[in-house]
Structures
1.
Amino acid sequence: MVVLPSPLHFSTSFLSSATASTIVALCVFFALLCACIIIGHLLEDSRWANESITALFLGLCSGLVVLLVTNFQSHDILVFNEDLFFLYLLPPIIFNAGFQVKKKRFFRNFNHILLFGVLGTVISFCLISLGAFLLINRIGEVNLDIQDILAIGAILSATDSVCTLQVLSQDETPLLYSIVFGEGVVNDAMSIVIFNSVQSLNFSSINAVKALELLGTFLYLFCTSTILGVAVGLLSAYLIKTFYFGRHSTDREVALMMLMAYFSYMIAELLELSGILTIFFCGIVMSHYTWHNVTGNSRTTTKHSFATMSFISETFIFLYVGMDALDIDNWKASKASIGTSIAVSSTFLALVLIGRAAFVFPIANISNYFVTRESAKIEFRSQFIIWWAGLMRGAVTIALSCNQFSHSETTSQEDSALMITSTITLVLFSTMVFGSITKPLIEAVLLKHSKQTTSDSADYHEELGLLFLESNDSIEQSNNQPFLRWMMRYPATTVHYFWRQFDDNFMRPIFGGWGFVPVVPGTPLTEEEIS
Amino acid sequence: MVVLPSPLHFSTSFLSSATASTIVALCVFFALLCACIIIGHLLEDSRWANESITALFLGLCSGLVVLLVTNFQSHDILVFNEDLFFLYLLPPIIFNAGFQVKKKRFFRNFNHILLFGVLGTVISFCLISLGAFLLINRIGEVNLDIQDILAIGAILSATDSVCTLQVLSQDETPLLYSIVFGEGVVNDAMSIVIFNSVQSLNFSSINAVKALELLGTFLYLFCTSTILGVAVGLLSAYLIKTFYFGRHSTDREVALMMLMAYFSYMIAELLELSGILTIFFCGIVMSHYTWHNVTGNSRTTTKHSFATMSFISETFIFLYVGMDALDIDNWKASKASIGTSIAVSSTFLALVLIGRAAFVFPIANISNYFVTRESAKIEFRSQFIIWWAGLMRGAVTIALSCNQFSHSETTSQEDSALMITSTITLVLFSTMVFGSITKPLIEAVLLKHSKQTTSDSADYHEELGLLFLESNDSIEQSNNQPFLRWMMRYPATTVHYFWRQFDDNFMRPIFGGWGFVPVVPGTPLTEEEIS
């Protein structure tokens, strides 16, 4: 720890030395975060760099400085803390994603999202485990048991939804954004479920029943987590609508929204459900109901403060991953040669590439085969981008890897350290390389290409159809024939229509929402707030 | 710890048991915070209750529930954590106070604030120490050494600026608010300095030189902390003005303001200065310069999100103090009879009452004697309210008390525990009783009384004078005679005039501020934002 000379005998700081170390760490992180924001801003126009890569790079540099200052000894600041990540950094990101997601598009692609997220993760897990089983133990003197191999399968199946959010744009490539991002959220939950199952599985009796039990667990978790998130979101909407806090205080409304969102995550973790799924759906419900029940000032404040918190957490995570990569103890403990390290990392990378290709292209093509509507088909270029954008591995991968190998009893210390360092190498490489290439790649493959306009314009027409339905609720009485034709052609639209009926007649009178709460005088709705 | 049954064999939660306990604690706190907000809202119209008292009461109740559930065993959730308080809860409150304070009024009362805050705290410390020295060791079998006695003097001198903020209104009683609140901020810093000096002092050689050294330390801390806060604030203004973040992202602006504010606190703590003073002045500078350099959305967001964070922290602190009061280990360790406990607590209360009266009335009357201007005089009714509003003791008192007596080596365990429980009793009593009586008392003594209007209207006239100066910068050329008369009558106004000249000609062109940054199209300034 850096000890600064005290200029005077008396000091105001009566805090303990543990606290002093915390203060140093906080100072370093806050200074670095400010630097990331400023550098990220200056690099805004660059196609290659983004905030994640800047943060990762700055994290690596400052980790190096810490190592130099501490003379290459281990330092607390460089050790990855899972609790910090899962309890404080991940929730705001996922909540904000749910809060800002374009709901219509997300739910229209819901079956794609589930297919890629659930089935895809299972395929990827099986393939990566098989590949690891066949390859890893042949490299150098590595010796892993079956449980470690399966854990690696789960660890490498967790895509990084955070970095994906930064390289894909919700406005430029809406279809891809909703599929890749939605898949990411489901995939996070799925890979954590698989990982835990692997950790708790008894390997003396693997059979079909176990596999079915695993699937049952996932379905149970998915449904209960979603219901919990929706319930907390609706409760917040009901409370704010009933008590009408804005009359007295904007702060109370904003505080209640923040607290209840975070509460949904915590209660899900307490009940051993998937907090990620819960807070994501809580965010969706809050943006649909609660957000419309508060005053104009609260709307602006929540919208931007949630985005800001998410932004700070994202930047912090990448900074942290960068610094953590230089946790010298792991590198020292791994006695493997450079050749072995590179071989393991490359194997990991190859497995990730193949594992993802093995489900993206088949699932997309099979789903294309069943879908009759041209606009819902995923053309090959888009499939390629879906494959590519999901190759990045991030903080979830590192967290799971540390969890599996940090305190392993069955695996030798050298092998454990090698697995952790290889995972870190994979994360750094994939984020830096895939992350910086993705933006230019999307531009080259999709945006500048004429083919894309077809799919986009079809999409646009459908959007128009939805708008048409929305603006004209009495359509079924007045003009039944064209509506029926719509219904036959666009079943998703029909579901949406019935949902709107239910929403307007039952949900919104109870929970509020757009147009169902009197506007407070003096807080005019701007166009941005309504959208 | 409450362990909930897991419904299925596999669990998503691979977090450690320490984390599980954290999750339970977070769940409890978030649920309680939501309850506080809703109950506080429902009690809004009550003159007697406020959010602090609701939170304190809820904290006590839930502490009791925890005790019943754990069968009166000690529980982590009930132990006061100084780091949590000083590193995470106090900074947002003090920053927001600086950010929202009415700057003109604050600086006009600056000499009063310094007199009450510095001289007053010293007088209070001396008197309470003397009283404790004469009384405490005669109660029961209490046996404290001179260092403990002096520490008690410092501990009991720390007023609670948080609760004061809730019972005094900036709009109803602006003069009192700025004096009592400003005094509170200086007093916090001062009592912590005295406390640390007492802890590090060598009692074999107390002499006049030591006392002067103490004063020198305080002046050094006050100046350097202020300069640091101002410097960080100006840096944030300069960065945001130069890079003009709003062009790209509202989130970046908001994030940078939050991070730099918190950074100022951390760097002050790192340099062993007073973080409280630093972040307070950082808040003042940020609201004067930085806030005007950002977009309209960012202005609304920062204003309300800072207020919300401060609100959550305040509520949390009182909840925490309430729960902490039931830290059963302290009550068990203190083997004193109920009579002794009550005697010590009552002595503490009496010392606080006398210690505060001993400086408020003399200082106010002496300052009245030197001030010629009628509006700057503090009449007796106001003196009474200043005395009364500063009687509440809060989290700083508990934090200092825990720090002194939790790990004391020289004092017996019984006496240490007795001191801690007596401090807690004092805090609970003063917050509950003085806190709930203050609002009705102010109404009875000041607001409904005709005398007040004189002082307020004089104040109002002066305010008009300031406005007049501001709106007419060329007054000195065109009409010199009346201006000189103003200058002679209101020296404070003259200082303000020169400050404005300096601000307009030198500071604002560099650091931005109201009217010095082009307004972004589409983000009109509302009246509220300008004020």
2.
Amino acid sequence: MSHTYEYPRPALTVDCVVFGMDEGDLKVLLIQRGVEPFVGKWALPGGFVRMEESLEDAARRELAEEAGIRPSHLEQLYTFGEPSRDPRGRVVTVAYFALVKLSDHNVVHAATDAREAAWFSVWDTPKLAFDHSDVLATALQRLKGKVRYQPIGFELLPPKFTLTQLQRLYEVILERELDKRNFRKKILSMDLLEELDEVEQDVSHRAARLYRFDHKKYKQLEKAGFNFEL
Amino acid sequence: MSHTYEYPRPALTVDCVVFGMDEGDLKVLLIQRGVEPFVGKWALPGGFVRMEESLEDAARRELAEEAGIRPSHLEQLYTFGEPSRDPRGRVVTVAYFALVKLSDHNVVHAATDAREAAWFSVWDTPKLAFDHSDVLATALQRLKGKVRYQPIGFELLPPKFTLTQLQRLYEVILERELDKRNFRKKILSMDLLEELDEVEQDVSHRAARLYRFDHKKYKQLEKAGFNFEL
């Protein structure tokens, strides 16, 4: 075993950027640290990787422990390893990111090392512990990139949604307004959406048509990728 | 310091996938291991991360030590952490990938833990140690993806090249033939190339026009990304 033990080892953690979509706003899940360092400060949920678990399992365990959240899909984002990023010493963290329906996770329960868990607008978070602001910024970049070459929204929107909700999701992620007619023309041309015989309920304005994703086509495009110029 | 020391730590390594373009073939740099485990087997260059160095610095140090290679650009690829991936125990590896001009690195010099260093066609490598075949496959996927939304070739082609050489690069990466007229139309429409007043030298066939990348435009497109349907 000598080769793996010759060297002092950095500590290894995972951290998770969980995005949720709320009426027209993109939210990120944060926890308030209950332990040093940065006790009382807000941070991304995460913690140390155990010897017997995979990196993704560690990320899922920490999300469940610290915020009671179990996302269907987790994706590895980037590994942050600047020697000075943690005051405790050398700690390398593998960051994951996930998209969830906020409606399924409106109430998040803090536990273990987390004092509180809550959703914050990605554009208005408190100062984050460690280099977690960089991790969040990297996740937002990834999300902006995905929009251009993969379908998005399945994990973020309710099962049935209006085209306005879908456009709003794109606008929030891309941080700019999109032309309504142009957006609809492009999104509908992809055969990604199923038009339903239903309209929104309980709205003051004229009820809009509801759509849902064609799951098979969605998965196809996720795999094959596409070019979506907006 | 307790929080970082409560847990046994996985060992942390870096591994590098270095691609080089050789007359019409995509090559990957491999080293023959001089130490256990997998002594004598071929693997990606890499090694343990030191406590005081960043992950990228570790990757650069290992590349220089094991193969005498100093790529201008290194990019983090993915972190592999399956508990069973290394027979020595729990070892998590952060993989990097780099593109280099084979002409600058034709002769690679093995050193330290590497017995030999050599270039292999990516389509015809020996059986690799650890999970390095998965790492290589992941790097090839990343390269295929990049071709679609970023300019490519600056690090792989000689400073002056023909459109045929550039098309061949795309064909090798995409693993399919491209229509010559269509490819030229698209690539020239991007204003990415500077046509030179020179033609190839010492060729039996009719000497073709030489081009070079417009570095400024190349960097712009690298940053902004584009949609290149081929």
